């Protein structure tokens, strides 16, 4: 479950969210990332070559996620060029980052990696995509509340909400079948 993964990732950091005080941290604290699924994907992208290769193959899914909270750090990993199976390559990549991002990723590296890496990554990405669809639905529903909305725009927006609901149900079914 997501709570179980969150607990496993938090366990090695004394129960703090990712981005908490890293051992030996510099004057700048690590960035804060609250989304557990983003944390899971970042950890696995840094430490599991199979997950890293899968994420690279999934790059077309990246633009849709850029509007979500905490996804910026994930898209930075997605776009980076390093070999997750080579600790030296990961270290070189991390040293190229701003200090706060490097501290965040370094903190992730010392945490346990729970479960089956690739399957956890697939479920995490699906949950992130579900959240993105829900956000788009909220925006569209908000647009429908506008009293000055033209009929044609209202019809388009209602159709968009219906398509988003269908997309959401399909993603939720995929996630349920993978758990």
Question: If you had to describe this structure to a student in words, what would you say it looks like?
Answer:
It is a single chain. By secondary structure, the protein is mostly helical. Helices cover about 65% and strands about 0% of the residues. It is built from 9 helices and no strands. Helix 2 crosses helix 3 and helix 2 runs parallel beside helix 5. The longest helix is centred in the last third of the chain and has 28 residues.
Quick overview of this protein structure:
The chain has 9 helices and no strands.
Termini distance?
8 Å
Biggest β-sheet, characterized?
none
Radius of gyration: 18 Å
Discrete helix count:
9
Total strands = 0
Mean pLDDT: 82
Strand content: under 5%
**What is the approximate shape?**
elongated
Stretches where pLDDT is under 50 for at least 5 consecutive residues are: 1-26
* Sequence of secondary-structure elements: HHHHHHHHH
Secondary-structure-derived class:
mainly alpha
Helix fraction bin: 55-70%
Q: Characteristics of this structure?
A:
9 helices; mainly alpha
What order do the helices and strands come in, and which of them pair?
Layout: H1 2-11, H2 36-47, H3 49-57, H4 62-65, H5 71-79, H6 87-95, H7 99-109, H8 117-144, H9 151-178
Helix pairs in contact: 1-2, 2-3, 2-5, 2-8, 8-9
């Amino acid at each position: 479950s997501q709570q179980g993964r969150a607990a496993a990732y938090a366990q090695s950091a004394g129960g703090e969210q990712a981005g908490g005080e890293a051992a030996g941290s510099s004057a700048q604290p690590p960035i804060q990332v609250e989304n557990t699924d983003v944390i899971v994907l970042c950890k696995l992208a840094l430490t599991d070559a199979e997950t890293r290769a899968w994420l690279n193959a999934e790059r077309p899914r990246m633009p849709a996620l850029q509007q979500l909270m905490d996804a910026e750090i994930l898209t930075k990993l997605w776009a980076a060029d390093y070999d997750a199976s080579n600790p030296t390559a990961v270290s070189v990549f991390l040293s190229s980052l701003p200090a706060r991002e490097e501290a965040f990723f370094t903190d992730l590296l010392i945490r346990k990696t729970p479960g089956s890496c690739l399957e956890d990554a697939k479920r995490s990405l699906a949950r992130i995509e579900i959240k993105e669809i829900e956000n788009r639905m909220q925006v569209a529903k908000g647009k429908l509340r506008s009293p000055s909305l033209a009929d044609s725009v209202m019809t388009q927006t209602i159709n968009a909400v219906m398509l988003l609901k269908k997309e959401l149900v399909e993603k939720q079914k995929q996630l349920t079948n993978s758990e």
